[in-house]
UniProtKB/TrEMBL annotation, chains A, B:
<dbReference type="Pfam" id="PF03807">
    <property type="entry name" value="F420_oxidored"/>
</dbReference>
<protein>
    <recommendedName>
        <fullName>NADP oxidoreductase coenzyme F420-dependent</fullName>
    </recommendedName>
</protein>
<dbReference type="InterPro" id="IPR036291">
    <property type="entry name" value="NAD(P)-bd_dom_sf"/>
</dbReference>
<dbReference type="InterPro" id="IPR008927">
    <property type="entry name" value="6-PGluconate_DH-like_C_sf"/>
</dbReference>
<dbReference type="Pfam" id="PF10728">
    <property type="entry name" value="DUF2520"/>
</dbReference>
<dbReference type="InterPro" id="IPR018931">
    <property type="entry name" value="DUF2520"/>
</dbReference>
<dbReference type="InterPro" id="IPR037108">
    <property type="entry name" value="TM1727-like_C_sf"/>
</dbReference>
<feature type="domain" description="Pyrroline-5-carboxylate reductase catalytic N-terminal">
    <location>
        <begin position="7"/>
        <end position="94"/>
    </location>
</feature>
<dbReference type="InterPro" id="IPR028939">
    <property type="entry name" value="P5C_Rdtase_cat_N"/>
</dbReference>
<feature type="domain" description="DUF2520">
    <location>
        <begin position="130"/>
        <end position="254"/>
    </location>
</feature>
Amino acid sequence: MHHNLHIVFIGAGNLATNLAKSLHQHHFKIDQVYSRTEDSAKLLANAVGAEYTTHLEDVLLHKDLYIISLRDGAFLELIPQIMEQKSDALVVHTAGSIPMDVLKPYTQRCGVLYPMQTFSKSRAVEFDTIPFFIEANNEEDKDLLISIASELSSKIFEADSAQRKKLHLAAVFASNFANHMYSLSAEILQKYGLPFESMLSLIDETTRKVHQVQPHKAQTGPAIRNDQDVMNEHLNMLKDMPDIQAIYKLLSSSILNHKSDK
Amino acid sequence: MHHNLHIVFIGAGNLATNLAKSLHQHHFKIDQVYSRTEDSAKLLANAVGAEYTTHLEDVLLHKDLYIISLRDGAFLELIPQIMEQKSDALVVHTAGSIPMDVLKPYTQRCGVLYPMQTFSKSRAVEFDTIPFFIEANNEEDKDLLISIASELSSKIFEADSAQRKKLHLAAVFASNFANHMYSLSAEILQKYGLPFESMLSLIDETTRKVHQVQPHKAQTGPAIRNDQDVMNEHLNMLKDMPDIQAIYKLLSSSILNHKSDK
């Protein structure tokens, strides 16, 4: 029974924090949390009843499952050190854009457990509708990862490294860039002393809409109407925020170009 | 009692359609719908039990309230014709970016009724949480507009033309540009034969998050982590979609720039 698995987390960032807490709530045993940052390691370890360390050489050996969830650059740099004496353990990472193969030179038991979601430490995420994309180097470990993920979510998919990379790219637009549009909106409002809360009803509806209507068909606003008067006025209002003005220009022309494609 | 008001809609686009239907459901009398496009005029008129016309000179005279909801360019061009013989009627428009003053040369009874939302004809919007921003040229008409809007929504605010223009600009980012990010995400997924539906859980959480956390603090993804490896790989994947690649570049650097500001 996989609740007897002993799990170690390498990383204590947003994703690791949410995933570890969810596993802990589902009665998985997390033995240890590693993070270079002591505060992060300690905070997460305390939350999930684990030990913590800030030294890779002190990561416990002979555990069942190591879940690596580090910033991609740090991950690739640290792989050789992380993988020392892990040749018989199942080692997975959680990154959308890193192929499983980076782990292969070190172990035959490797895989990926990619929950496609935006995580913040300050906000607990409900896992049950998060899609998990799973890959493993052998059938047995794949089944194990599927059965673990199935306890957290009802949306489990298999995806190889190439598919995962494409999903991640699309997710950057759907989530990270959409959120940045909220940030720029908030910045404009703040400049004028208006509250960001006034946008929430609009933001909610924009999101609800794409559950029913393809996004390019849901597009509204001055750009899709090619309403030059409004766009020129908006560009003029942004003249002392040139970086935001450049984004307004590029996105408006992109909206118009994509209209003619469809 | 304002349910005895006789209303005429000048325009039958997305906003006009949703607003007219909502007024109709709340037992307001809509006498006529004008649109240059016969299909649009007819469709909306039938839905709200009104007559329709495609000729401005046939718009009924001596009604109580004229609601102008046209594309901004068309509106400004047609104002003189629309306003003929309306010098004693209350005439309002619904546009975020057009000042109330454009109506003043023609009538002393003018105003604005701006529901800040993204409207599609194919999707009925619940009005009760939509913020309405209201302006009028005299107190009596302002009270009338407030009392009408209060039947549709619980969020009624007064805003002058300058404030409304700022809200509209911020709304373009929060809604129109965010939706375009969904479109680009869908386009990338389509190219790879993956379904847009896989993004919905992520999109929902991104939206829920900004109800609790300021958007710039909710930002996640490779740009805010300055994860050059991932960003370069993504740019490389977009090399045969140069317009989307340019957007990826500009938004990633904007995310990073705004990080250092905060």
